[in-house]
Amino acid sequence: MPEEEATVSIFDRGFLFADAVYEVTSVVDGKLLDFDAHMARLVRSLGELEMDMPLDRDAILEVHRELIDKNSVDQGVVYIQVTRGVADRDFLYPKDAAQTVVMFTQSRKLTGEKKGLRVVSSPDIRWGRRDIKTVQLLAASMGKMAAYKQGKDDTWLVKDGFVTEGSSNNTYIVTKDGKIVTRHLSNSILSGITRAAVLKLAAEQGLEIEERPFTMDEAKEASEAFMTAASSFVTPVIEVDGTELNGGVPGPVSKRLNEIYIEESKNTAI
Ligand code: PMP
Q1: Is 133 a catalytic residue?
Q2: Which of these is catalytic: 95, 114, 133, 255?
Q3: How far, in whole angstroms, is CA 69 from its chain's centroid?
Q4: Helix, strand or coil, per DSSP, at residue 23
Q5: N or C, which terminus of the chain has less Cβ within 10 Å?
Q6: Is residue 49 in a domain?
Q7: What b/e readout covers 215-224, taking b as 16+ CB neighbours within 10 angstroms?
Q8: Which atom of ligand 1 is nearest to the CA of 194?
């Protein structure tokens, strides 16, 4: 329906409790990248919150495709959000609320040359279940705003001395001896769909990968750095907390991984 006609109740638990999960799937050439991996993560996020899928995979795919078509999306993203639904405000989950399902598209250019980003660290004040993709995004939004106020592009969040992830992306450094280091999966970070795809491609390229936490000091010593997200693929990072990496220009590993990720994703897009 036209966006002006779309409404959600003020009693929706997504609004009152951030009791909702979401996915963002990228679109290139009008086709969806990694759609099934996003749906698998949606099922998992819902399951962790004792919710079921509101529609099956095929029905969601059909609506995604219809939206891409109706909005003439060549490159961009499709957003889906599922809330527990509408109920009288209560901390206990309602038994019989009908889930609210919202989907929309955003057109934006995703491919092409990328400028490197400058990032600054900030404390990771988010909750302890960052593996669930909930719409509780205010802490990340505050971190990104703090970075913008310092004239930077994004923030890398730090908990107990180690980088967890970016405001809306997974983070990586490439050590001087060529190893890719990225934090291991746990409740501390979101298991990125792009992360999984890029690590697989990196391994196929013969690159060595270490899944472990790293510090901002280690990042400052890195030969290059980058981050991944469905909506921005592999994005080079050229400065961390005021220290320029690779002479302040995107490094070869991140550039190459971005190219092969896009190439591979286009081949498997649906
Ligand atoms: N971490 C966080 C906190 C995110 O919000 C995102 C973007 N959804 C990611 C990582 C990257 O995940 P994906 O590659 O699945 O987009």
Answers
A1: yes
A2: 133
A3: 24
A4: strand
A5: N
A6: yes
A7: ebeebbebbb
A8: 14
Look at residue 167 and tell me if it is in a domain: yes
Q: What order do you get walking across the sheet with 20-28 strand by strand?
A: 31-32, 20-28, 76-83, 100-107
Pocket test for ligand 1, best of 34, 169, 231 (most atoms within 8 A of CB): 169
What is the spatial distance between Cα 188 and Cα 173, in angstroms, rounded to a whole number? 18
User: Is 229 part of a structural domain of the chain?
Assistant: yes
**Does one domain contain both 167 and 96?**
no
- Cβ count near 54 (within 10 Å): 17
Atom of ligand 1 nearest to the CA of 41: 15
Dist CA 2 CA 143 (whole Å): 33
* Structure ipTM over 0.95, yes or no: yes
121 and 70 within one domain: no
169 C-beta closer than 6 A to ligand 1 = yes
| Model confidence pLDDT, tens digit, residues 37-84 | 999 999 999 999 999 999 999 999 999 999 999 999 999 999 999 999
